[in-house]
Specification:
The protein is mainly α. It has helices at 5-15, 21-48, 53-73, 76-84, 92-105, 111-118, 124-146.
C-alpha cells in the first residue's frame, strides 16, 4: 500500500490516542507529592528520634531507595507508575525503580550477564560518576589533611 506523506499523517492522527494532559498532570502531581510528603514525614520522624539532620537525611534516602526497590521487585511500583506517570520518576524512589527494573527484566539471562550487567543500563552512568567523584574528592581531602 502506497501513501503520500499527507495521507500517512492523517492515518497516524486517526490512530494516535488523544492525550489527557490535565488528568495525567494532576495524577503525576498528586502521586509525586504523596511520595515527597512520605519522605518529609520520614525525615521529620528520624529527626525526632534523635538523629542529626545529616544522618536523618541519609537514613531517609536509604529507606526510600529500599522501599522503591522492594515495591519494584514485587510489581507494585510499576502499577503505581502506570497510574501516575512522571509523578513516580522524579522522587528518589524512581531512581531505585530505574536500577531494579532492568535487572528483573534480564534475570533469565543469568546472574552476571543478566541481572548484574543490566542493572546499570539506565542508572549506571550516574552511579559511576558519583562513585568516581567521591573517590577523587576523598583522595584530595586526605592529601590536604596530610599536608
Amino acid at each position: 500500500m502506497k501513501m503520500t506523506n499527507k495521507e500517512y499523517a492523517e492515518y497516524v492522527k486517526k490512530k494516535t490516542p488523544n492525550s489527557k494532559l490535565i488528568p495525567n498532570a494532576l495524577k503525576a502531581f498528586l502521586v509525586g507529592g504523596i511520595i515527597c510528603c512520605i519522605g518529609q514525614g520520614l525525615l521529620d520522624g528520624l529527626g525526632a528520634a534523635g538523629l542529626s539532620e545529616e544522618n536523618a537525611a541519609t537514613a531517609e534516602s536509604i529507606i526510600l531507595v529500599l522501599v522503591g526497590a522492594l515495591l519494584t521487585g514485587v510489581g507494585i511500583y510499576d502499577n503505581i507508575a502506570k497510574f501516575a506517570g512522571a509523578g513516580t520518576l522524579v522522587p528518589i524512589t524512581g531512581f531505585a525503580n530505574s536500577v531494579v527494573s532492568p535487572a528483573l527484566e534480564f534475570k533469565t539471562e543469568g546472574f552476571i550477564t543478566g541481572t548484574a550487567a543490566k542493572m546499570f543500563i539506565i542508572a549506571g552512568p550516574v552511579i559511576v560518576f558519583g562513585i568516581a567523584s567521591s573517590i577523587v574528592y576523598g583522595i584530595i581531602l586526605v592529601l590536604f589533611k596530610l599536608i
